């Protein structure tokens, strides 16, 4: 393996405060092992474990989980709106990570870190699916999205630092997840209403909308503000992964809502 790869893999986090004070960011090992364990459980071990067992009744646990996730994401969204737009912390045409001496640097660190922790907590979604034997919900899109969010967040934190342009991703994503977990809470609390919750499909539209906006943000900076110091690799990462997610969510939306409607009309 190239020595430069070793250097990237083992280098200290770009922000020294992360290495000193915040668990799961000082080393690559906790997140790497967590994701390996997640994939093994979701794709193999969990299915073997549940093969001869009845689905677990996790209604109360899931209700608590959903309401906590809704509050968690709503709080992050509200604070991010204040941080970005009320405090006008960033130049919206070029959102770079704040310098270490900036008065809002600690706020930027903690907002980024608690968002990262929330992506780790999101992995429980799939664990619940396995234990409830809801295998149809464990799609390629679902697993890919969860693994991507945790691994990408971790490596961006380690190699680039906190905040910056990806703060806008957190803003959009926390709004989407606030709505999504509210839907999950209502449908778990009142399962008889699940089929009548007409706005479910609009959650997928909002999810696609966030990736379209993120694609446009990166494209704008690359085309019209090339002097921006937000790393070009991360710009292209944002472009590529936004494109992938638009296609994957678009495919899900087509098969879940458009195709069945056309089949009924035939």
Describe the structure.
The protein is mainly α and 266 residues long. The chain has one domain (3-196). Helix content is 72%, strand content 0%. It contains 10 helices and no strands. Helix 3 packs antiparallel against helix 7 (140-159), helix 4 packs antiparallel against helix 8 (166-189) and helix 9 (200-224) packs antiparallel against helix 10 (232-265). The protein is globular and about 55 Å long. The protein starts with a helix and ends with a helix. Mean pLDDT is 90; it is low at 5-9.
- What's the order of the H and E elements? HHHHHHHHHH
Total strands: 0
Residue windows where pLDDT falls under 50 for at least 5 positions: 5-9
Radius of gyration: 20 Å
- What count of helical segments does DSSP give? 10
Quote the average pLDDT.
90
Strand content: under 5%
Domains, number: 1
What is the share of helical residues? over 70%
- What would you call the shape? globular
Write the layout of secondary structure elements.
Elements: H1 3-10, H2 16-21, H3 29-50, H4 59-86, H5 105-121, H6 124-131, H7 140-159, H8 166-189, H9 200-224, H10 232-265
Helix pairs in contact: 3-6, 3-7, 4-5, 4-8, 5-7, 8-9, 9-10
């Amino acid at each position: 393996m190239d020595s430069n790869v070793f250097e990237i893999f083992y280098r200290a986090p770009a922000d020294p405060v992360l290495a000193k004070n915040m668990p799961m960011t000082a080393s690559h090992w906790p997140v790497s092992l967590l994701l390996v364990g997640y994939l093994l459980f979701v794709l193999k071990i969990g299915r073997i474990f549940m093969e001869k067992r009845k689905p677990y009744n996790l209604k109360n646990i899931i209700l608590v989980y959903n309401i906590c996730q809704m509050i968690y994401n709503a709080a992050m969204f509200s604070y991010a709106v204040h941080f970005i737009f009320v405090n006008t912390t960033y130049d919206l045409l070029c959102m770079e990570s704040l310098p270490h001496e900036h008065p809002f640097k600690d706020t930027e660190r903690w907002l980024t870190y608690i968002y990262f922790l929330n992506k780790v907590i999101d992995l429980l979604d799939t664990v619940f699916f396995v234990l409830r034997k809801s295998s149809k919900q464990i799609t390629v899109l679902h697993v890919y999205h969860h693994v991507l969010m945790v691994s990408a967040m971790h490596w961006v934190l380690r190699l680039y630092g906190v905040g910056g342009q990806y703060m806008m991703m957190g803003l959009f994503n926390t709004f989407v997840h606030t709505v999504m977990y509210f839907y999950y809470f209502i449908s778990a609390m009142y399962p008889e209403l699940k089929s009548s919750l007409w706005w479910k499909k609009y959650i997928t539209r909002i999810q696609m909308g966030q990736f379209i906006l993120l694609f446009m943000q990166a494209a704008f900076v690359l085309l019209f503000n090339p002097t921006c110091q937000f790393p070009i690799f991360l710009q292209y990462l944002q472009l590529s992964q936004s494109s992938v997610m638009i296609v994957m969510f678009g495919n899900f939306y087509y098969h879940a809502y458009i195709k069945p409607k056309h089949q009924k009309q035939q």
